[in-house]
């Protein structure tokens, strides 16, 4: 059997994407004679033989016939991947590439979970309970010691196994240990001993249970047997390398051993935590699957005929040719990775990608947050925090000494950055060797002074170290502490640098002399260690590194547990990806996975939600999909927990500096169980005091006969104006809805201002289209917005848009003039940020007037004027008071933010220096058509790439081994440090909104006391009593109407209970939904379309069942008082969920009428994905989501305004900085790319210097601001579920459709009171939100 034609190299495709080359320019890699047959196709044996010669470990896998198919790449069957010669083989291979990964990942994973559940249930029948070993010869301590020894031997065997997959040339490897076989046999013997001891001495089962049942009911025992069975058989047969190496199957047991050493439960703790949070996990998985299928379907509809998505040589594979194939690539996008961002069609394909950016990636992260919170709660309940015991605290320095140290460190950093600019000439793309500056140039003359200056700057740290040794009380403890090591590293490298300079002088690297090169690199390394002085500013910034150490010590148990879980999954996934992709026909993919160390590197990047290589085989897609769905979350849990714990400690210290106490239990109960931060509570108390002063002023004015609205106290400037004057009325009118006392006119004016601003911004964005760059051309122009313009209309459209922008600008001018006239302090208004935004927008008036007058205006001036008008968006902050509150909280958190930025800068400069040192002269390794010496020759770009990598994105992966090792270590912690500033900004924003909520709650409570006093007078009136009685009777009448309807139609009442409360029916509905959606997705595969009758026969009963379910819910809607119906069939039909289901079923039956219509078939199959909404009926997610919305709606739009404003305004800077480069030809394209950048995904990275600075700003601040809205949704969903809201909703649902609730509302209320008393305000809120409406 022959391989089909080899697809194009992934490296070539990646270069094509980065460089924006047309698809036709991508060429397939050349195949050597050893890997190509005479007919131009790849031979399977010719592909496998080189690996057999290189890797003895591979011989174990491939030597036997029954395992050869696994090596070639087939898991479910060799026929699908290899196929046969001709079109039939190509069809089978294409079918397997599209659908095989789903069968292996989800069907195989589901069967595995079902088998595991059978194990657990069978084992539960024979378990006696938790007990300890009672055999004197085999105690718990001896068992643990033996398991630790086995773990060490297992790690050694795995290293030998990984080394056997490598070949460095001339029969050399990294370790090349000759006794690897003996080590494996010893490990197998020890594992067999542990296996027998567990089998015979474990008392966890009943005495009546045979030991065989112990083996049959333990999945880990089966895994242990499979791990050691190949080695045992080889030892018995005395024939080696005949079975596959399954050493990696021992890692699950090793994970269980380490977890049992930490908490005593072992791997069962994961099962228990998942079961405890199953409700929230089911809801989050439902939301994820719904969004995933929706976005995959839209991608399929918009990109199925896009020729840019073909990969491989003719005929190639289309990435979005079917829904199953689109699901895999959409899942990559959901992980925040957009490798094909340039190829998406405009506007719908890019719009769908932006929806994934704004919503999908954060929905995918909800299960991660649930697992992280569960791990943290488990450890906090079962283990005692060790606090800061044994951590040496550095005393704070004086102000003068602190200023000196900060100055010295900043000068040292600047001095080294200056050295990097004069060390060698800038490396160009075509250079293959470095060049020093000429003799006598000013750059070369600065080398020696820079190095001697670094020696002088090390003297303060030398004096500090000597003073510590003299004045420290416990010298021994100081010497053996990390603080002493940091003190020594701050000055000792400079001492050795001085010795080298005095002995050899200032050496140059690129002189042709090996000795000079070696000495120059040594001096450069000693000079680069000046970055180790950054941690010595710890005392200056309040002991922030001391807090880091305390955080690590206090949470070391949870860090150890999560890190071990993440590492185990990483190693298992690396082995699976090595087996799946090392013989991939694509040379680019095969080169990334040809050895196990390379596979470990690429899999580590995949675990950080990075997908630099994504065109895998079917089995590779299955493993990669499981990594993205499960592994990424587990891998990022330690980093998230570390960042959360560290921020919590900083919040505690900040609250201590404010000198305020935390809210008590009565405060939290008053706010519906909401978790109120200490900072927000302290700020709210300050606001209370300022409000009391304002209210006292209000009383004084009323005593003088001046009557003012009570809401005027919220604005200091309005309090300075006398009520009733024209200036007062104008100022209050311009406040819009922000003043609660304003009427309809103020609201209309606010809406008009917002519409004018939005119209101006949209007009300015349209003017940036390249269509308006040259109005002398002819033909048609595709705007990318869904419509086409003629070139003859260019001039008239340009003038019309400019005139519209002029009218909008005049409206801005009139508004600004009115604000200056009515403001009590115009000079203060001039310095306000919103006024500056108005002035920037009005700065475009001269250019616009000149253009309309016919004067020649340059392209640059026109672009500047268009972007300045967009900055008017910032002026809308007057109506959404977000920035002013955040600014106030940031001022209070200024020192805390400075501390966090100091930690980030410390690690950032150290990592950037490390990368620059090893890569500034690396001419042998290339990435993206450039050598690493070209990428890293400039220290500014080294800082950019380092920060991008620290944020988890790797657009370049071909790093040398010495750099990869450090990067793999930084993957576990770097994210936490990069996200800390953004997390602090988000915390400041949350505190501002929480403070506003607390203040508003207190105002409502004060207002309620006044309203109650008024109502006590009104309630005595007979008319009011009649109105109250009428409302009460109307409410009871509706409930009675429902009960009477259920009594009148008992069959429909039983049907209602069946559809909404019967668990067996819900199981059938869920199974049918999965089958129908799966069949509809497979129906879109082109290779399966000829079997149309088979698909229609299989799907017709399911569609009929769904139609009956829909009709049953419609018929019983008049007696269903839940939120989805409100006793109204029309309300039931008007829901978007029901409309989508109705459209899906209608299109399916229309396809049955017109089966030959290919477009109708495509739309019909795509519409069937909407039936996944049936799980909302099963799980009841709509009620919980409505509660989440009611919880966050006050703050969600404010957060969206902040993140959206930052996105749009920063996009204008990107547009000006890149000037049409990197695909940013207009504002719409720039908004598309920056939306992806705000996820931390850099589909483009070869920016200008200004663009590099913006990318660093995005990595530090923008990613956190973009995540704030969905983070609020996730936080509210987690809090409501933790407080039992989901269980209350489900109980309410059962009662509404129960037998007693079907007849009498009073019986329902009594059952509700007996079943679950409404004691908390949270439950009162939930029940009231779910009550029936009054008519």
From TrEMBL:
Keyword Lipoprotein among record annotations: no
Superkingdom of the organism of origin: Eukaryota
GO CC term (a single one): voltage-gated potassium channel complex
Topology term for the membrane: Multi-pass membrane protein
GO MF annotation terms: voltage-gated potassium channel activity
TM helices/strands, residue ranges: 99-120, 182-200, 280-301, 353-375, 401-423, 478-504, 557-580, 622-646, 841-862, 900-919, 965-989, 1065-1085, 1097-1118, 1139-1154, 1166-1189, 1196-1217, 1229-1247
Residue span(s) of domain Ion transport: 152-376, 747-992
InterPro entries noted in UniProt: Ion_trans_dom, VG_K_chnl
UniProt KW keywords: Ion channel, Ion transport, Membrane, Potassium, Potassium channel, Potassium transport, Transmembrane, Transmembrane helix, Transport
GO BP terms, alphabetized: action potential
Cellular location(s): Membrane
PANTHER family (alphabetical): POTASSIUM VOLTAGE-GATED CHANNEL PROTEIN SHAB, VOLTAGE-GATED POTASSIUM CHANNEL
Protein name, as recorded: Ion transport domain-containing protein
Organism: Effrenium voratum
């Amino acid at each position: 059997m022959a391989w089909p034609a080899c697809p194009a190299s992934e490296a070539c495709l990646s270069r094509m994407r980065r460089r924006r080359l047309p698809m036709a320019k991508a060429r397939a890699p050349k195949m050597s004679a050893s890997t190509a047959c005479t007919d131009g196709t790849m031979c399977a044996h010719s592909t496998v033989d080189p690996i057999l010669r290189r890797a003895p470990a591979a011989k174990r896998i491939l030597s036997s016939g029954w395992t050869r198919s696994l090596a070639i790449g087939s898991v479910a069957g060799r026929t699908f991947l290899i196929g046969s010669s001709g079109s039939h083989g190509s069809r089978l291979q294409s079918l397997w590439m599209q659908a095989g990964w789903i069968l292996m990942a989800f069907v195989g994973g589901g069967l595995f979970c079902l088998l595991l559940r059978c194990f657990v249930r069978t084992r539960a029948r024979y378990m006696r309970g938790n007990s300890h070993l009672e055999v004197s010869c085999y105690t718990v301590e001896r068992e643990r010691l033996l398991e630790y020894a086995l773990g060490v031997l297992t790690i050694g065997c795995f290293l030998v196994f990984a080394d056997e997959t490598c070949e460095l040339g001339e029969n050399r490897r990294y370790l090349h240990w000759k006794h690897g076989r003996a080590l494996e046999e010893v490990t197998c013997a020890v594992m067999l001993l542990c296996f027998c001891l567990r089998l015979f001495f474990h008392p966890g089962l009943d005495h009546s249970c045979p030991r065989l049942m112990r083996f049959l009911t333990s999945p880990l025992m089966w895994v242990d047997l499979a791990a050691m069975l190949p080695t045992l058989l080889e030892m018995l047969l005395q024939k080696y390398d005949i079975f596959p190496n399954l050493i990696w199957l021992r890692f699950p047991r090793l994970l269980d051993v380490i977890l049992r050493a930490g908490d005593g439960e072992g791997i069962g703790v994961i099962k228990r935590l998942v079961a405890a949070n199953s409700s929230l996990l089911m809801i989050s998985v439902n939301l994820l699957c719904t969004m995933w299928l929706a976005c995959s379907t839209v991608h399929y509809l918009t990109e199925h005929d896009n020729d840019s998505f073909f990969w491989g040589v003719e005929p190639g594979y289309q990435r979005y040719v079917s829904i199953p194939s689109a699901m895999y690539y959409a899942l990559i996008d959901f992980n925040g990775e957009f490798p094909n961002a340039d190829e998406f069609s405009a506007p719908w394909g890019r719009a769908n990608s932006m929806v994934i950016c704004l919503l999908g990636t954060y929905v995918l992260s909800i299960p991660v947050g649930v697992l992280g919170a569960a791990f943290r709660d488990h450890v906090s309940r079962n283990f005692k925090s060790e606090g800061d015991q044994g951590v040496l605290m550095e005393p704070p320095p004086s102000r003068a000494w602190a200023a000196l140290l900060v100055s010295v460190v900043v000068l040292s950093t600047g001095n080294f950055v200056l050295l990097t600019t004069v060390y060698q000439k800038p490396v160009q793309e075509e250079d293959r060797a470095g060049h020093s500056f000429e003799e006598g140039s000013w750059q070369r003359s600065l080398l020696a002074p820079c190095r001697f200056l670094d020696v002088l700057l090390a003297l303060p740290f030398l004096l500090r170290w000597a003073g510590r040794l003299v004045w420290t009380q416990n010298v021994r403890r100081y010497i053996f502490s990390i603080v002493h090591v940091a003190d020594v590293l701050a000055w000792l490298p400079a001492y050795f640098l001085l010795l080298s300079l005095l002995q050899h002088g200032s050496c140059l690297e690129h002189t042709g002399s090996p000795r000079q090169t070696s000495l120059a690199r040594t001096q450069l390394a000693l000079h680069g260690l000046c970055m180790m002085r950054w941690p010595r500013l710890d005392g200056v910034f309040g002991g922030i590194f001391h807090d880091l150490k305390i955080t690590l010590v206090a949470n070391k148990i949870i860090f150890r547990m999560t890190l071990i879980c993440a590492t185990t999954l990483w190693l298992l996934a690396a082995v699976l990806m090595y087996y799946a992709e090392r013989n991939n026909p694509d040379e680019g993919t095969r080169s990334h996975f040809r050895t196990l160390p390379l596979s470990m590197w690429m899999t580590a990047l995949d675990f950080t939600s990075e997908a630099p290589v994504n065109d895998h085989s079917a089995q590779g897609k299955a493993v990669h999909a499981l990594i993205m769905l499960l592994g990424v979350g587990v891998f990022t849990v330690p980093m998230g927990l570390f960042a959360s714990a560290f921020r919590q400690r900083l919040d505690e210290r900040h609250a201590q500096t404010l000198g305020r106490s935390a809210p008590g239990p009565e405060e939290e109960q008053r706010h519906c169980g909401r978790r109120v931060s200490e900072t927000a509570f302290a700020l709210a108390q300050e606001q209370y005091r300022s409000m009391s002063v304002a209210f006292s002023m209000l009383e004084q004015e009323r005593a003088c006969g001046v009557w003012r609205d009570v809401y005027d106290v919220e604005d200091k400037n309005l309090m300075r104006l006398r009520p009733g004057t024209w200036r007062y009325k104008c100022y209050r009118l311009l406040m819009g809805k922000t003043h609660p006392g304003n009427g309809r006119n103020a609201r209309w004016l606010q809406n008009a201002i917002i519409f004018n601003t939005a119209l101006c911004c949209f007009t300015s964005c349209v003017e940036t289209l390249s269509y308006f760059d040259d109005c002398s051309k002819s033909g048609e122009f595709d705007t990318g917005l869904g419509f086409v313009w003629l070139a003859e209309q260019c001039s008239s459209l340009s003038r019309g848009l400019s005139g519209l922008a002029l009218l909008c600008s005049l409206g801005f001018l009139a508004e600004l003039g009115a604000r200056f006239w009515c403001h009590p302090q115009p000079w203060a208004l001039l310095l306000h940020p919103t006024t500056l935004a108005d002035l920037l927008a009005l700065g475009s008036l001269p250019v616009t007037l000149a253009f309309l007058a016919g004067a020649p205006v340059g392209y640059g001036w026109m672009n500047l004027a268009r972007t300045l008008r967009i900055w008017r968006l910032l002026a809308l902050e007057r109506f959404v008071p977000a920035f002013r509150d955040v600014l106030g909280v940031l001022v209070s958190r200024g020192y805390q933010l400075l501390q966090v930025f100091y930690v980030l800068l410390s690690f950032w400069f150290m990592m950037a220096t490390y990368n620059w040192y090893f890569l500034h002269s690396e001419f042998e390794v290339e990435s993206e058509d450039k050598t690493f010496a070209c990428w890293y020759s400039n220290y500014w770009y080294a800082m950019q790439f380092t920060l991008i990598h620290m944020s988890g994105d790797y657009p370049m992966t071909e790093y040398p081994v010495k750099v990869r090792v450090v990067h793999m270590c930084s993957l576990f912690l770097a994210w936490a440090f990069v996200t800390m500033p953004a997390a602090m900004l988000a915390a400041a924003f949350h505190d501002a909104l929480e403070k506003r909520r607390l203040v508003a709650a207190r105002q409502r409570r004060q207002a309620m006391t006044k309203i109650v006093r008024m109502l006590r007078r009104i309630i005595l009136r007979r008319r009011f009593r009649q109105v109250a009685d009428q409302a009460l009777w109307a409410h009871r009448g509706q409930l009675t109407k429902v009960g009477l309807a259920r009594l009148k139609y008992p069959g429909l009442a039983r049907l209602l209970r069946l559809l909404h409360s019967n668990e067996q029916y819900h199981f059938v509905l869920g199974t049918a939904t999965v089958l129908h959606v799966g069949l509809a997705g497979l129906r879109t595969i082109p290779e399966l379309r000829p079997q149309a009758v088979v698909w229609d026969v299989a799907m017709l009963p399911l569609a009929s069942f769904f139609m009956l379910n829909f009709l049953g819910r419609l018929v019983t809607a008049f007696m269903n008082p839940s939120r989805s119906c409100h006793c109204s069939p029309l309300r039931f039909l008007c829901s978007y969920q029901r409309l989508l289901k109705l459209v899906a079923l209608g299109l399916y039956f229309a396809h049955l009428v017109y089966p030959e219509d290919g477009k109708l078939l495509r739309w019909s199959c795509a519409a069937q994905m909407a039936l996944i909404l049936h799980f909302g009926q099963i799980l009841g997610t709509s009620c919980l989501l409505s509660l989440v919305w009611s919880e966050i709606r006050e703050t969600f739009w404010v957060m969206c305004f902040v993140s959206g404003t930052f996105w749009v305004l920063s996009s204008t800077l990107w547009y000006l900085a890149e000037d049409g480069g990197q695909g940013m030809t207009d504002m719409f394209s720039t908004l598309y790319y920056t939306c992806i950048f705000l996820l931390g995904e850099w589909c483009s990275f070869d920016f200008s210097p200004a663009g590099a600075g913006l990318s660093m700003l995005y990595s530090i601040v923008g990613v956190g601001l973009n995540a704030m809205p969905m983070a609020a949704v996730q936080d509210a969903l987690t809090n409501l579920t933790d407080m039992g809201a989901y269980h209350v909703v489900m109980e309410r649902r059962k009662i509404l459709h129960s037998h007693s609730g079907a007849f009498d509302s009073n019986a329902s209320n009594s059952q509700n009171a007996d079943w679950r008393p409404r004691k908390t305000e949270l439950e009162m809120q939930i029940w009231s939100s779910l009550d029936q409406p009054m008519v």
